[in-house]
Input
Amino acid sequence: MSSETTTGLSKVEVIKIDQTRIGEAAVEYVPAEVEFQIAVNGEVETSLHCAPHRVKSLVVGWLIGEGVIDHEADFVAIDTDLDNHIIKVTVSEESACKLAARAITAPVGRLSEPEFPRRVTTELELTPEQVIDLAQRFKKLFLGLRSSERMCYLAAFAQNGEIQSYGEGFHRINAMYRALGELVIAGVAPSNRIALANFGLTQQMTLRLARAGVCMAITAAPPSNAAIELANEYYLCIVSTAIGSQITVYSAPWRVI
Output
């Protein structure tokens, strides 16, 4: 079977088999996965397995999730070498110092997870009806995407009932990074925003949301127990809408009134 790579997707030959067991040759687009090394101010810091599209939002989201930058002004430039699969990123001197202060452990790309202060306020509260309405808006967004953009996972950020950014990917963390990056590139701070995802949260994803100052996550699947423990510590409310119109609150329940 052959393949032809396009922006973010790869066209491949497949065999489709129906109920009569008759197979037909067809063409289908699948996510094009590439491993990119990310070099920050000349030093390789990590690697991301991702589709080579919307690279800037992906990298900005990663930098914010890692606590390296707080807003786009700390992000100076990006140069993507598609031939050698290297993303060269330049950040401000202050941001570079933040990254250097974090201990690097083997294997390459695994940064230590230092403690950080709680960034969210205690003010945001939603009614169950508002939670369900946002979840329905998010589902409508997903179903409205062009098929070429509809990857396996989708994440978004919202405030005041309106979705402000979204990111898709075949890795959950990439979808979250892209949505976070698009938000910040648009000049909107992630602090006290609401995250939406068509997947459940792990501890690592919850950690990055908390580090960015996100106060609530509405998901289509339950989080892990470690994610719940961390979310409670940082006042991050995780709500799942996995079963019809019923919602399940896993952490910081006082945010859902």
Observations:
- The chain has a mean pLDDT of 84.
- The chain has six helices and 15 strands.
